[in-house]
Amino acid sequence: MTGIRRGLAALASAAxxxxxxxxxxxxxxxxxxxxxxxxxxxxxxxxxxxxxAQADAMAANGMREAxxxxxxxxxxxEGQRDAAGVIHxxxxxxxxxxxxxxxxxxxxxxxxxxxxGPKTCAGYEGSFGHEAQDARTYAAWGVDYLKYDLCSLxxxxxxxxxxxxxxxxxxxxxxxxxxxxxxxGRPIVYSLCQYGFDQVWxxxxxxxxxxxxxxxxxxxxxxxxxxxxxxxxxxSKYAKPGNWNDPDMLEVGNGGMNAIEYRxxxxxxALLAAPLLAGNDLTRMTPETxxxxxxxxxxxxxxxxxxxxxxxxxxxxPLEVWAKPLAGGAKAVGLFNTSDLxxxxxxDFAKLGFKAPVRTRDVWAAKDLGKLKSYRVLAPAxxxxxxxxx
Length: 390
Ligand code: GLA
Known about the structure:
Elements lengths: L2 H15 L16 E4 L1 H4 L5 H13 L2 H4 L3 E3 L5 E4 L5 E3 L6 H10 L3 E6 L16 H11 L3 E5 L3 H6 L4 H22 L4 E5 L6 H4 L7 E3 L8 H9 L13 E3 L12 H13 L4 E3 L8 H8 L1 H7 L8 E6 L2 E7 L5 E7 L5 E6 L9 E5 L4 E6 L1 E6 L4 E6 L1
Helix pairs in contact: 1-8, 3-5, 6-8, 10-11, 11-12, 11-13
């Protein structure tokens, strides 16, 4: 462990002991948040009409019934502050309150984005020095979710002179917005985004985060998605109802992976109890994409009420087995073949805690396999066989 890391770890444990300023809103993010976010597909090409169209699609195509709720506007909505310091949306979003009302009328919730720094990652107005004011503005608009992205706070942290001072700045910034949100009086899911530095999983909950990004940005490519997903090994103990590890938003349907790879993406995120934030254009997806996003049994694994994150239980070269404990003693198990050719993957269920043969179901095939003690199956290249045991 380097001196830097030691310093961060010490700060992290101090943060874990710090008392929260006021009570967290009860019941927020009891299961990993589900919804949609504008960034992966639209980036800065996002506006009021596009957001409404996504809400229309989610309410009409079965996603809402499958559990998707949040319509989250990412970066580039921000306009200028007025003389009183109040933030206004830019011309792409003429009336944020009207937009929130529209989204709410569809039975959905609205999310927004800001930064603890003076500027967002895309160079728009951040919340630095205006935290309480911004939280009140979001609450007045009817916002239900805030992604708070470190961005331009980074340089001031680097200028702090020491790692300890840098992280103190970061923790204080996240706590400041936590307190501002609580004081604003509306339950708002608080999503921390600082790319997984400083073992954020150890202190994200103590600064009020309902979820915290554990990695840098995902891209719509199999190797990057896989790298991010598998890098979650060992983090399961930090997730629980109200506090989730966030390996970034989904790329399902954006076109850079095939259907097998997107099923791997969705399966891994479900096993990780990751937020399921679709990142595609919901108005134009194929039936196959919709089927992947809304598969009830896969979503149920992600949303299992026990709120336990899965973890790696076996690895043999490119073949991995991950398991997630489910309510009532059941388990979801993913048999991953990360190689470029089809391969057999095998797992002994005794290793997963099942002493007797257990009811086994292939989730994507929607097929009961009977009571088994082990399973060996040919998984396609870059594919997964997702099982439910018990
Ligand atoms: C960062 C975040 C992304 C997205 C962009 C917006 O890169 O990690 O998820 O919010 O900023 O600028």
